[in-house]
């Protein structure tokens, strides 16, 4: 028996294939690089890709220790090569080593999710994947999340190494790595970076693995064939015939399967953009994290808009502190839904992983200012109720426990306050501390404001919706305020100016329902920023401007500047009297732009430089004045803009991508079918239940080989005519041994077709073509038309002849011609019809049919 026996410890180690598997597993795990910092991900992935491959190689290929033989003159007894160790041994050893590795690397300092090393590992394995979907990316080195790519990479390397060691499949060992790669791409869609380079490396690893496997398997088959032919063992029997076919295979035989992997690896990195384009709304992206995001419970979490009057009633209460102090507005919550009774938020929150992804234009996010520096603010909650957390616009990074962020608007909440989790042992919400790094959004220029248009599409429909029951006084006031306005900006500006003519009264009754707004506009004409902002947002929707309400704070400059001369004021204190509500309008290309309709209090003009509105920066007032002076184009007010070509272009692009994907899938499917169908058909024929069917199957296989080699075989031709055509077309199979012993090592029974094949013949070599096909013709003629029994030896001999004919045809014809004919349209359907009636046997007599029935067919 050869030392190259597949699957045994005595077999040569397929070192190149194992290295390719480790490389593919490591590259597959690298698809998670958009979700973790490279410094945190590199070492675990290298260990996970290499160690299981080494463990499998040692378990499977390391020969066992043999006992020492005693006695000097004793002759060694022939021993059978040892069987490979079971898979359970390899998997068990790898699992124990993996547990030790993660215990002393990832979880060496424990985990914030569980106490103790082993419970932390168990918790990471069970819940790490779910937490990864509930966290913004990238994740900053949390061991309970890093264990996800590490464990998946380990499994891919282990499975690939086991398949290399125990099977002869050239492509199957890389499939686990492909699965891990796709999982990594999908789980890190919102992360920064690209997986195109990783995909290219993975495709290269696949090709290397295929070539290494083909080379190793070809060498093994050749060794087995030569050894078995000389010994007459089973290695030279049926396995030898198969070995000849394997040895003759080229790497190009795997081209269809490799093409499938190439397409998969190429499409996977584009899954994020394609899923984004396939979102339900115009430009709305699809992310698997959307299935795990948490919508704020509006019943359990009271809207901060309801607290405005209460805060104004105790203006000196310190709600939170900001260090260093800030002079700009601080955001608390964004409310974009109105049901006629209250404003609520549609935000969806994810636990913050450290980095806050930038907002998208499809969500109305404003672009960051190119020259604006990042600002780091340290905040401490003192007496601020509710889950919403204050922050500067817009956050780019967070640090602190229990934080959640709405990626769309950048608003923050206390995660445990709205997820229903147990807060026992957590930091007291009244003394919460966290840090926010933010970058100020870019302010639009006067020209951009003057020419801004209102966006259209499903993504803005909710911010235009008004419930039934709008009071007439509100509708009339909105239309009167915007009379004569031509552009959307002019409408927004005139609404702001109209409301500034009313009176700010911090003691005005609370409320922002339809009824409160009607009283505010028609009777009292005075209110807090709650009524001013709510009335503006409703006005805007009446005239067709997308609007929402923002609750925040506008610290007074004296406290923001750090005036601590008196002992009762601390620098950075934000008090209840600093609360401010303002509306925002969404413009195409500019995002959500704030407006400030609340006038300054009559007795308090502190900080209102060159403006009469609360919270409005002086530079903003200057920009708005310049934009208002820009002449408007001669168009009707609030004119419905023309159909957006961007949306149509996106639809056409998506349709084109879909059509291209379908064409690629169809082409790859056809290639895969053309490659797999002949092999499946050949295997089915060779493993038929009856010897007669196996002989006929060998003849059908030979006719397929002739057709593939370009030798025309008419359906009406007899076996003798086919032999003549083959001899005239190409020289095949000269010199093959006749008889079944070549294939099985057994002697054909006397009088069998196999035993008299060489004697009967069908003419000279010049007339009949070759000995192999001529002897096969004798066998199939006897099987179809003779009354005698067809033996298993005849079937073995027939397939031995078919093997030699096929090998000689491959050697004597061009590869290009074979591939072209194999891919010819109609070939698959034609071959399916031939299974019911073998070609070359169209003239079958009643005697042949009765002979088939007599043999049990």
Numbering strands along the chain, what is their spatial order in the largest sheet? 1-6-10-11-8
- Count every helix, treating DSSP H or I runs of 4 or more residues as helices: 30
Low-confidence stretches: 1-10, 224-254, 268-285, 417-427, 560-569, 605-611, 636-647, 730-769, 830-857
Number of strands: 18
Determine the N-to-C terminus distance.
Answer: 38 Å
Radius of gyration: 39 Å
Q: Quick one: biggest sheet?
A: 5 strands, antiparallel
Tertiary shape: elongated
The secondary structure category is alpha+beta
User: Strand portion, in percent?
Assistant: 5-15%
Q: Kindly report the oligomeric state of this protein.
A: single chain
Question: In summary, what is this structure?
Answer:
It is built from 30 helices and 18 strands. It has 857 residues and is an alpha+beta fold. The N terminus and C terminus are likely disordered.
Explain what the structure shows.
- The protein is an alpha+beta fold and 857 residues long.
- Helix content is 47%, strand content 9%.
- The protein has 30 helices and 18 strands.
- It has a 5-stranded antiparallel beta sheet with strand order 1-6-10-11-8. A 5-stranded antiparallel beta sheet has the order 9-12-7-2-16, with no helix packed on it.
- α5 (143-166) runs antiparallel to α6.
- It starts with 14 loop residues before the first helix and ends with a helix.
- The N terminus and C terminus are likely disordered.
């Amino acid at each position: 028996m050869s030392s190259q026996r597949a699957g045994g410890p005595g077999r040569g180690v397929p070192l190149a294939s194992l290295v390719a598997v480790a490389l593919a597993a490591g590259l597959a795990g690298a698809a998670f690089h958009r979700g973790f910092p490279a410094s945190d991900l590199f070492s675990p992935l290298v260990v996970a890709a290499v160690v299981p491959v080494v463990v499998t190689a040692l378990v499977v290929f390391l020969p066992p220790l043999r006992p020492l033989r005693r006695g000097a003159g004793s002759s060694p007894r022939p021993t059978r090569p040892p069987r490979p160790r079971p898979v359970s041994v390899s998997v068990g050893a790898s699992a124990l080593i993996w547990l030790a590795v993660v215990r002393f690397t990832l979880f060496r300092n424990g985990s914030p999710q569980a106490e103790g090393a082993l419970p932390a590992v168990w918790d990471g394995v069970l819940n790490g994947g779910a937490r990864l979907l509930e966290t913004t990316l990238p994740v900053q080195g949390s061991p309970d999340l890093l264990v996800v790519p590490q464990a998946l990479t380990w499994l891919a390397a282990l499975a690939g190494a086991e398949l290399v060691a125990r099977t002869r499949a050239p492509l199957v060992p890389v499939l686990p790595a492909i699965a891990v790669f796709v999982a990594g791409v999908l789980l890190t869609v919102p992360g920064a970076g690209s997986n195109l380079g990783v995909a290219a490396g993975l495709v290269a690893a696949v090709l290397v693995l295929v070539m290494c496997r083909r080379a190793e398997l070809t060498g093994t088959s050749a060794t087995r064939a030569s050894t078995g032919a000389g010994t007459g063992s089973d290695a030279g029997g049926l396995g030898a015939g198969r070995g000849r076919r394997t040895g003759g295979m080229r790497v190009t035989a795997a081209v269809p399967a490799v093409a499938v992997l190439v397409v998969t690896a190429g499409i996977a990195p584009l899954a994020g953009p394609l899923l984004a384009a396939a979102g339900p709304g115009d430009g709305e992206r699809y992310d698997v994290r959307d299935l795990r995001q948490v919508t704020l419970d509006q019943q359990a979490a009271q809207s901060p808009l309801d607290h405005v009057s209460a805060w104004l009633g105790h203006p000196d209460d310190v709600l939170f502190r900001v260090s260093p102090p800030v002079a700009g507005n601080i955001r608390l919550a964004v409310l974009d839904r109105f049901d006629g009774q209250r404003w609520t938020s549609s935000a969806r929150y994810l636990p913050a992983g450290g980095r806050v992804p930038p907002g998208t234009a499809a969500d109305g996010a404003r672009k960051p200012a190119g020259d604006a520096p990042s600002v780091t603010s340290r905040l401490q909650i003192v007496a601020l109720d509710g889950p919403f957390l204050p922050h500067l616009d817009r956050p780019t990074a967070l640090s602190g426990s229990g934080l959640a962020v709405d990626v769309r608007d950048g608003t923050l909440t206390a995660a445990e306050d709205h997820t229903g989790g147990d807060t026992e042992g957590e930091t007291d919400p009244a003394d919460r501390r966290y840090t926010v790094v933010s970058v100020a959004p870019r302010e639009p220029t006067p020209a951009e404001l003057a020419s801004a248009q209102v966006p259209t599409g499903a993504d803005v429909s909710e911010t235009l919706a008004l419930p039934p029951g709008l009071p007439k006084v509100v509708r009339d006031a909105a239309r009167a305020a915007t009379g004569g306005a031509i552009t959307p900006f002019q409408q927004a500006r005139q609404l702001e100016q109209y409301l500034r003519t009313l009176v700010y009264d911090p003691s005005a009754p609370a409320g922002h329902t339809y009824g409160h707004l009607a009283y505010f506009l028609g009777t009292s004409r005075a209110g807090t920023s709650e009524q001013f902002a709510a009335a503006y947002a409703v006005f805007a929707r009446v005239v067709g401007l997308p609007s929402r309400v923002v609750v925040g704070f506008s610290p007074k400059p004296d406290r923001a500047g750090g005036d601590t001369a008196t002992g009762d004021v601390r620098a950075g204190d934000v008090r209840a009297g600093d609360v401010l509500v303002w509306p925002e309008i969404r413009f195409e290309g500019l995002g959500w732009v704030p407006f400030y309709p609340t006038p300054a209090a009559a007795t308090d003009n502190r900080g209102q430089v060159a403006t009469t509105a609360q919270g409005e920066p002086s530079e903003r007032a200057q920009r708005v004045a310049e934009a208002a002076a820009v002449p408007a184009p001669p168009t009707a007010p609030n004119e419905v803009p023309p159909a957006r070509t961007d949306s149509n272009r996106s639809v056409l692009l998506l349709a084109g991508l879909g059509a291209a994907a379908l064409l690629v899938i169809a082409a790859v499917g056809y290639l895969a079918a053309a490659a797999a169908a002949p092999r499946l058909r050949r295997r089915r024929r060779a493993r038929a239940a009856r010897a007669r069917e196996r002989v006929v199957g060998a003849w059908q296989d030979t006719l397929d080989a002739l057709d593939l080699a370009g030798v025309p075989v008419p359906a009406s031709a007899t076996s003798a005519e086919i032999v003549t055509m083959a001899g005239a077309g190409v020289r095949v199979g000269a010199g093959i041994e006749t008889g079944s012993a070549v294939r099985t090592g057994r002697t054909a029974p006397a009088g069998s077709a196999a035993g008299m094949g060489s004697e009967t013949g069908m003419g000279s070599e010049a007339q009949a073509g070759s000995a192999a096909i001529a002897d096969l013709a004798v066998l199939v003629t006897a099987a179809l038309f003779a009354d005698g029994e067809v033996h298993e030896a005849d079937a073995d001999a027939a397939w031995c002849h078919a093997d030699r004919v096929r090998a000689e045809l491959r050697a004597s014809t061009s590869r290009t011609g074979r591939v072209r004919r194999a891919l010819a349209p109609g070939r698959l359907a034609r071959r399916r019809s031939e299974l019911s009636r073998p070609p070359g046997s169209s003239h079958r007599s009643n005697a042949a049919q009765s002979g088939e029935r007599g043999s049990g067919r």
